[in-house]
Known about the structure:
This protein is an alpha/beta fold. The chain has helices spanning 3-11, 13-16, 24-31, 49-56, 71-80, 94-97, 118-129, 151-156, 184-192; strands at residues 40-43, 64-68, 85-88, 104-109, 132-142, 159-167, 174-181.
Amino acid sequence: MDxxxxxxxxxxxxxxxxxxxxxxxxxxxxxxxxxxxxxVLELGSGTGVITREILRRGVNPKKLAxxxxxxxxxxxxxxxxxxVHTIQGNATDPSVYRQINGNFDFIISSLPLVLFNEQxxxxxxxxxxxxxxxxxxxxxxxxxxxxxISTELIQQLNFKSDFLGKIFWNIPPARVFRLxxxxxSTYSNHQSSH
Length: 194
C-alpha cells in the first residue's frame, strides 16, 4: 500500500474516507470518457492514482487542476506533477475556486461524500456547477450503495445522475456515477413528468 496514503490515514482517518488507495481499475473507470483536449478538475486527489490515469489519457498538465485537503499529499502531488496546478484546501470552500481559472469539461471527484452533511453537499454542488458548461460532467465514486446526494438536490440543481458501474476489484468495492446538467427543454419535460 502507498506509504503517503498510510501516513495520511493515520493522521486523519475520517478525512481520508477510504481504507486503501483507489485501484487502477477504479481510476480507469473514473477517467474513461476523458479526451486529450479536455480540461479537468480533480477533487480529493489523494496519492495521485486517478491523476496518473487522467494524464495517461493525454490531458495537457496545464489543463488539469487538483484540489486536495491533506497538506502532505499536496506536497507529494506537487513533487510528482510539477506542471499541474495543485491547490491545498477544502473543496467546499469558495475561496479555493478563486485560485482556478475557467470552466472544466470533466470534474473527477474522490471526495468522501458520505461524510458530508446535506448543506455541505449542496454548497459543493453549487460550486462545481459554477465551473461547468452545458456539456460538462462530474464523475463521482462512492463505497455506499447509492450516490450520497439526494434525488431532491439533484433535481433542484438541474442535474441528472447515471450509474456507470460497480468496481469489484477495489477495496472496498466502489460504485461510479456520472452527473450531467439537464438542458432547459429536458429539464422542463423531466419536471412535468413528475
